[in-house]
Design goal:
globular, alpha/beta, five-stranded mixed beta sheet, about 30% helix
Length: about 230
Amino acid sequence: MNNKIAIVSDIHANKYALGKFLEYINKEKINTILNLGDFVQIGPNPFEVSEVILNDNRFINIIGNNETSLFEINYNQDDNENKHRAWTKKEIKENFIEIQKIPQEKIITIEGLDILMIHSRKNNIKGMPLIYTGNIEDFTNDYKTYNVDIILFGHTHEKLFIEHNSKVFINPGSLGCSKKGTVDFAIIEISNKILKSCIFKSLEYNKLNLIKDYNDKSVPDKEFLMKTFYKIN
């Protein structure tokens, strides 16, 4: 029997996109969700999203740069980015303590395949994989030291599937900040040490409630965030 696993990344505090994804997962009876980080910040619902991520035992989690940046807030700087970070940390409440315990990378084994979960670059989770002047070797060389079969990463918000040097690289896209306004993720099937399939999914959802939450909660820097990530003016 094939083992179906959902891969998600970059939920970005969007509880409506997350809810749409969970409807699909529940219907398909998928019991393993690999979360590649950046589930807080940008969106208006960091507490609600963190509640799901921390308490739904189907999730296996790592954190990304949007989580680690909450550990580095400079309260002496009065810029919009710091204001948004401080607001997010306050909204998360007691869940912040649990988020601090989540690692930045993790290796798991499913059906005999070793899988690396990492948000972005090996030595710098803020770096942008495949968005630089080098070639595919420059990217894959980052992971030569990992004795794994599959490498999962997010951060760029762009879907990607590459097979190179006996490794598979997968980016599921962004669940909560897709450029097309969709809910993007991937479903893989593994059986007997073989990756049988990788299917990218895009679901539609209504952004009106998201906009309402931005306004009702007076999210710091909301105009920039809505325009940049959701094309909402």
